Please model this.
Amino acid sequence: MINDVARGALTKRGPSGIPRPRRPAPRRKSVWATVVLAIIAACFSYSHYKKTGSAADRPSQIPPRQTANPPSRDTTVERQTPSSPGDGGISKYFANRQSNMIVRAGGTVERILPDDSTTDDGSSRHQRFIVRLPGGVKVLVAHNIDLAERAPVTVGQTVTFKGEYEWTEEGGVIHWTHRDPKGRHPDGWIEVAGKKYE
Model:
């Protein structure tokens, strides 16, 4: 018994005078402290990751090889010609129901519609025609003829354009195919037979 008291296992005596074993101290404080420290470490680690990105996102320390003719900034769009226009991502935007996307694309004029010139809200007149893109999506091009010269399009002709894509169930609408007189929106254009109408 003395050995137990010397070791500190028995400390208090009960009502009968018999020594009682000591209860272990609650570990709640140390558990909570560990949880709090783990959360702080995780937050710090995550914020550091957000600032620096993952290793796969960071550029390599090895500089890239230099080429004699570096590609232009936007190779997929700038290299398109009227004879081989792309859809400028419109197929993807159509599938995802996205709007307000600035696009450069082209296709074949499939149908010419009457001008939209009867507006009750005072908006501008628009030249309208349907273009079938290489992926099969059809878009309505609405070209503002109060701000830009009419584009002389004919059925079967290949045209390219830059404008803003708006999703519709039929395929979409391309507008802003002209310069913005206030300079607040990216300028657009329609190219027919090598001439831009903006």
In short: The chain has two domains: 2-52, 76-197. The chain is about 20% helix and 30% strand.
